[in-house]
Amino acid sequence: MKLIKTANDHAAALEALEALMITNPLPESDASEKIELLGFLIETYEKERHQIPLPHPVEAIRFAMEQQKLKQVDLIPFIGSKSRVSEILSGKRELTLNMVRELHKGLGIPLKSLVHDSDFELPERIEIEDYPVKAMFDAGYFSSVVDLKWSEIKDRLESLLHEFFGGRQNDPIGALNRQTSSSKNRIDEKAVHAWRCRVLDKAAECKLGTYEPQAINPQLVKQLTALSAMAMGPVLVRDRLREVGIALIIEERLPKTLLDGAAMMHPKGFPIIALTLRYDRLDNFWFTLFHELGHVMLHLDEKSTSFIDSDIDSQSTTSKEKEANEFALKSFISPEQWESLKHLSKADEIKVAAAQLAISPAILAGRLRREARDYRKHRTLIGQGKVKELFELF
Question: Does the domain spanning 57-115 belong to CATH 1.10.260.40?
Fold first, then answer.
């Protein structure tokens, strides 16, 4: 007795079954058990080879209309409008996930018929209004429709959100947010979560060296600060961090997030530093980068939460944020050095001092502006508009 795999096997099994049944064997006999087994093998083969195809979704809808004596106008509550019903029934437009949900719930049409997939399971509803979907589309979050126009995908947004999140829409953000929101300026937590998922996805695509926590040491920090003095410093620091297993991701912020950057652990066990370049300036790039690197070195491990920094120029309010700020400041300029530099005011003096420190003059100029809380100073030294250009973000 063997599995039936071919038409010849099937014919031979039918012949053997017929011969056994002619003998009219007693129950519980060997021959009776063979009949039962042959019958099972034949039935399995026939089901696999002769499955009845699922009806086309339009056919399933028309069948339901016929059975329930419905007119096209009766489908408007489930599909959306008279013209949309006409487009669906004529095959000019595909059903959206919400239409599938409503037709299944309201008319009792089997899901497998509406999506032409016998294994389909209806996912939990995602409220499109909860997310900045237009901004997400413009930023390339929906990879399967990057070549389409916004007007061509508006009806598919819930499906695209499911595709993007992959079940992560309700995962805890796992972040310590430093926010300066007010009644006029609130942080959109859903947008923050979507941005974070985007960062995780991009980090998963990076080619990284093996991450060893002990490799993130003062010697490496010194190497990274020296890169700031080079014209291509931001790109070089990204490559150096990736060599030691840290993914540096540049991902512009979504509306109503005010994000500057984040430090997080990828589920695969390597750190991520993500920067939004909200302020396209060299001084802000280097300070934010080292602030997040401070989180990686001082606060992150495989079991820790992420740190998502909003409005990094605001006053730090937690001990961890203060520690990350101090790490960033001291990595470039020690407290002793700062005492002799904090009164500098002329561009030439700042450039000379930065060269002696082997750092970008933008960093020193940015520190002077920040400490004085006068952001009109040293505008020609801070590298305005230089960072996105280096990363080819226009």
Answer: yes
- The candidate with the shortest Cα–Cα distance to 262, out of 299, 208, 310, is 310
Burial of 307 (0-12, 13-18, 19+ CB in 10 A): buried
CA 265 to chain centre: 14
Report CA 350 to chain centroid distance, whole Å: 41
Encoded tokens for 203: 């980090």
Dump pLDDT digits (tens) for 58-77. Answer: 999 999 999 999 999 999 99
| Cα 107 from Cα 319, distance rounded (Å) | 57
Provide the 3-class DSSP secondary structure of residue 247: strand
Nearest to 157 by CA among 177, 171, 136: 136
Judged on CB neighbours under 10 Å (0-12, 13-18, 19+), 269 is: exposed
- pTM of the predicted model over 0.85: no
Reading the block at residue 380, the tokens are: 């020609």
Tens digits of residue pLDDT in 120-139: 788 889 999 999 999 999 99
Q: How far apart are the first and last CA of the chain?
A: 69
The residue extents of the domains of the chain are 7-49, 57-115, 128-165, 175-190+202-331, 337-387
CB 292 within 8 A of CB 261: yes
380 contacts 347 by C-beta, under 8 angstroms: yes
